[in-house]
Amino acid sequence: MGWITLLVFPIPAFLLLHYLENWTLHDFLQLSTFQSIPVGYGIEIGIIYAFLAILVLRARIFEEAPLKVDELVQSMNLNYFDAIFLSVCAGVGEELLFRVGVQYYCGPFWTSILFVAIHGYLNPFNWKASLYGLVVLPLAFLLGYGYEHFGLWFSISAHFAYDAVLFILFIASTKKSML
Predict the structure, then answer these.
(1) Buried b (16+ CB within 10 A) or exposed e, 140-173
(2) What's the pLDDT score for residue 70?
(3) CA-based R_g, the chain, Å
């Protein structure tokens, strides 16, 4: 799953930008714009937002029905290395697809909504998933507008940090409940 996200998700975005806009792989990966300060901001934002989301997700309304992502993560029986690996894959693969590819044509607002909806969190048939979608939608906006102001590597690092914190805390709580 991680390898597919990392290696396959960016392909349609790259091909579209390459053939329609004449982008090179170097343009697409934006390696020349990598700077440590925006990466640091991204990591900071991702960690802070993850802890804020966890506080919100402890509300009773979320206890009543677990989210599908919780069930998926639990069924995968992840270890800490898996958590970091999947976080890197999601951060890089999804941000290349959505921020560099989709956002180029749709802008940060619509791309952020599409990003959350594709994850299944804006679902008119599952109001609890939609409620979680409203929790993560501001993060998606931060990733989108952060990409516009700080670049791709800000978005990748924020996405990575958010996922890594959630995965690690989920694994730790699962191990603790097994004791």
Answers:
(1) bbbbbbbbeebbbbbbbbbbbbbbbbbbbebbee
(2) 64
(3) 16
Q: Is the pLDDT of residue 179 over 80?
A: no
Q: Encoding tokens for residue 163?
A: 């996922």
Contact predicate 82/76, CB 8 Å? yes
Coil, helix or strand for 78? coil
The single residue listed with the structure tokens 């959630």 is 166
Q: Which two tokens stand for residue 158?
A: 């924020």
Domain ranges of the chain: 2-178
Q: At residue 120, what are phi and psi to the nearest 5 degrees?
A: 90, 15
> Taking 80 as the threshold, does the pLDDT of residue 84 lie above it?
yes
Amino acid 64 reads E
Question: For residue range 24-60, what is the model confidence (pLDDT) as tens digits?
Answer: 999 999 999 999 999 999 999 999 999 999 999 888 8
- Beta-carbon contacts of 14 under 8 Å, excluding residues fewer than 6 positions away, are 23, 25, 28, 96, 101
3-state class of 17 per DSSP? helix
Residues in the chain: 179
Q: 13 and 27 in contact (C-beta within 8 Å)?
A: no
